[in-house]
Amino acid sequence: MAAIVIVEDEPWLGELYMHCIERAGHSATWCRDGYEAVDLPDTVRCDVLLLDLFLPWGNGLQLLHELRSYEPWLHTPVILCSVAPPRLSNAERAAYGIADVVDKTIIKPAGIVASINRILQHANSKN
Amino acid sequence: MREGREKLLLEDSQGVGLLVAAAHELKTPLAIIAQLASALEDVETLGSAEERYLALRRIRLSAERGIQLAQGLTVGYRLKTDQLRLFELEPLDAHRICQEVAHELTPLATAYDHTIHLSASAHHQLVVGNTLLLKCVFTNLLDNAIRHTEGKTPVKIQLMRHKELVRMSTFSEGVPDVSRREFSQLGQRLGKELQPFSLHAGGSGLGLYIAQQMAVAMGGSVGVGGSVGHKNAYVDLLRSTQMSLL
């Protein structure tokens, strides 16, 4: 069972993602903003981080810089999730450790779960 | 001539910026609707009758949020194009407007596990305003307070008279959407295309910007206050005794 952390400020989407991820057999922790998220690395394991780009008081990439400063989360793969997904080059993706970018306006919850499973499978095959 | 053209270009660029901001703001309720509808299609994702009812209710409330924003944009456009005659000013009972908006948004508050508390007013507070504009403004403030309040804490509405003004406020727990400084720069910020890497608020602030324009059209203003943990937004309007000033 993998541990997935969701950072999503829209509560109805956060709840939906959590529901779908748990139904897929993973554990899920959901927080609504960067203030809650920065406390997580001390207590929560994270195998994949599902990160919203637009957050109250700080965007997702600023938060990611902060989270990367915690050693256990240094290489955690990230799925960047947004209604306005940025176009990132492979080099930019690698620099931020972004494994996937999903567009919230077209992705289905099942698609998010599929992306998580793909990333976990890829990580397992490397180990 | 050149100055006039530069002014036009500036207005045009702000118009494009507003259009981009509006499209961005509308994407969120549409994304919620699309994702919940998709989850509903898959019987295994939302299996129980209760889960399916909850999803349907959230779809409806998200659709209403989109419609509210679209209505705000339409009214904002009419104000920009000098169609002020469509919005006649008259004495309005601010307490009644608060009650009506609170009543209309109670289903939304319930969906977010909040309650709305309206401080009782000992007497009627008559203000100068237009019913449609004032309801749009206060709906925007209360809607923001409800959606971004933390925990199961109540959202409070307060009416206060101060000299020639009446202040209609919302108070809630949570991180303020915009600081006072950001609020004062909303017009300029919305004039530029949204930059995902530099934008650092949850929304673009478009709703507040439109609310401010509507308040100004009524001779009033919108403001934000509070600090981390305590949010406050308000609209100040002239008391009806000041109507002759307009």
What does this protein look like?
The complex is a heterodimer of chains A (127) and B (246). In chain A, 40% of the residues lie in helices and 20% in strands. Chain A has 5 helices and 5 strands, in the order βαβαβαβαβα. Chain A has a 5-stranded parallel sheet. In chain A, helix 4 links the parallel strand 4 and strand 5. In chain A, helix 1 packs across helix 5. By secondary structure, chain B is α+β, with helices and mostly antiparallel strands. Helices cover 52% and strands 19% of the residues of chain B. In chain B, the strands form 2 sheets. In chain B, strands 2-4-5-7-6 form a 5-stranded mixed sheet. Chain B has a two-stranded antiparallel sheet with strand order 1-3. The two termini of chain B are 33 Å apart. At the A-B interface, helix 1 of A face helix 1 of B.
Main attributes of the structure:
heterodimer; A: 127 residues; 5-stranded parallel sheet; 5 helices; globular; B: alpha+beta; two-stranded antiparallel sheet; 7 helices
